[in-house]
């Protein structure tokens, strides 16, 4: 393989693999009756998930501190909340003295087979209906 000075061939190969993954993801989602939403990841880890204020951060900073509203949160978790908000389409709207959104956790997967796990917890593998097992996941869900 021949690479130019900017590594364009590597970027092209990486993009082609990622685009084939996206193609498969969209294909499987349509077959399953689901919707896939593409979200621009730009500035998601530098934007406050509570108030929308943007803070310039270097990659070595792992904790996000918002000087506007005082939120202190893990940088990656903050980015995931912003990606989820952008995917759901909830806008930043000021709320009088309350947090903008509340995060809760809920059951997300039903399966006929229990998950195999090294650590067993009472929540994993609970019977929901006859022949079905419910698995709990820590996926945040926004509620107003």
Question: What structural keywords apply?
Answer:
5 strands; two-stranded antiparallel ribbon; Cas12f1-like TNB domain-containing protein; three-stranded antiparallel β-sheet; alpha+beta; 144 residues; flat; DNA binding; 3 domains
Which helices and strands occur, and which strands form pairs?
Layout: H1 8-31, E1 63-65, E2 72-74, H2 75-88, E3 102-111, E4 126-127, E5 133-143
Question: How many β-strand runs?
Answer: 5
Number of domains: 3
Strand adjacency order, main sheet: 3-5-4
Which range does the strand content fall in?
15-25%
Q: State the secondary-structure class.
A: alpha+beta
Protein name: Cas12f1-like TNB domain-containing protein
GO molecular function: DNA binding
Keywords: DNA-binding
Organism: Acidianus manzaensis
Structural commentary:
With 144 residues, the protein is of the alpha+beta class. It folds into 3 domains: 1-36; 37-96, no CATH class; 102-143, no CATH class. The chain is built from 2 helices and 5 strands; from the N terminus they run H-E-E-H-E-E-E. The protein has a 3-stranded antiparallel β-sheet with strand order 3-5-4, with no helix packed on it. Strands 1-2 form a two-stranded antiparallel sheet. Strand 1 and strand 2 form a beta hairpin. The N and C termini lie far apart (53 Å). The model is unreliable at 99-113, 115-129 and 132-144 (pLDDT under 50). Keywords: DNA-binding. GO terms for molecular function: DNA binding. Residues 18-83 form the Cas12f1-like TNB domain.
